[in-house]
UniProtKB/TrEMBL annotation:
The chain crosses the membrane at residues 38-58, 96-115, 127-148, 154-176, 252-272. The lineage of its organism: Bacteria, Bacillati, Bacillota, Erysipelotrichia, Erysipelotrichales. This is Phosphonate ABC transporter, permease protein PhnE. The gene is phnE. It is found in: Cell membrane. Its main location: membrane.
């Protein structure tokens, strides 16, 4: 690119000409006009289009505010006697999350290795693998659960497979980005001594990415506990079954028991993950 092209003013400055200011010493400077009015105008237009497209209505919120307070008041008055029916689905939810996370993270490691441009020099393979990972990440876990519930029948197995697929996409994506930032000199040295790709990666690269890999696994476990709690809406087991039943029956008191239990579990898992991360770092 030439110097003239580099010095060409931005499109905004070509449309909205800068203001010429003459200083006391006779020199002239150009003061660009503020972009804030343009940004605010575009933002207002986008918000207005979004309101029209979604049918958002403040009047509906105001008119129905009493229903919100009624429902919330029932949710915040949980019945502790209902806990006996919550424990089994809760444990099932944690099992689904744990199993799905472990399997997904294990599968994500080799996928990330072969999707890294500094490890795999075969560009078509890298492009295909990254395209597959992009597709896996783009589909919500709930959709996967619905698909696998139709294939493998209702139950926690379908939810576990859905979590495996989603975790695979997330972990592999974050991991291959980390792999591409590591020091490749130890890897190249081992390859020059005759080690194959996997042997060289395990000995030279794995120690560099292990803390990041474990951190990514913990992060996905946190996500999966939250996600698996609603997979029961499509028949994939866990707490979602209870949430769907209590919501359908408008039993908001017992729904509050389920949600409070889930909140405590997620809070404990977040605390445990933060503690493990501090040890890893």
């Amino acid at each position: 690119m030439s110097t003239a092209e580099n010095s060409r003013p931005a499109l905004f400055d070509r449309i909205f000409k800068p203001e010429h200011i003459i200083l006391e010493n006779g020199h002239t400077i150009d003061r660009p006009k503020s972009r804030m009015p343009l940004i605010l105008t575009v933002l207002v237009i986008v918000v207005w289009i979004s309101v029209v497209a979604t049918g958002f209505n403040f009047h509906t919120i105001i008119d129905r505010r009493n229903q919100l307070t009624v429902i919330l008041s029932q949710i915040f008055q949980p019945k502790w006697s209902y806990l006996d029916k919550v424990w089994k689905p809760l444990i099932e939810t944690i099992k689904m999350s744990l199993m799905g996370t472990v399997i997904g993270c294990l599968l994500g490691l080799p996928m990330a290795i072969f999707a890294s441009t500094n490890i795999n020099k075969n560009k078509p393979v890298v492009v295909i693998l990254r395209l597959i990972l992009a597709v896996l990440r783009s589909v919500p876990t709930l959709i996967y659960a619905y698909m696998f519930a139709l294939i493998f029948s209702l139950g926690a197995f379908a939810g576990t497979i859905a979590i495996v697929i989603f975790t695979l996409g997330i972990v592999a994506k974050m991991l291959y980005e980390s792999i591409e930032t590591i020091d490749m000199k130890p890897y190249e040295a081992m390859v020059s001594f005759g080690a194959n790709t996997l042997q060289a990666f395990w000995a030279a690269c794995m120690p560099q990415i292990l803390p990041t890999y474990l951190d990514d696994c913990l992060y996905c476990f946190e996500l999966n506990v939250r996600a698996s709690s609603i997979l029961g809406y499509v028949g994939a087991g866990g707490l979602g079954v209870l949430i769907r039943e209590r919501t359908g029956l408008r039993d908001y008191t017992n729904l509050g028991t389920v949600l409070l239990t889930l909140f405590v579990v997620v809070l404990l898992i977040d605390w445990l993950s933060d503690w493990l991360r501090s040890k890893l770092s």
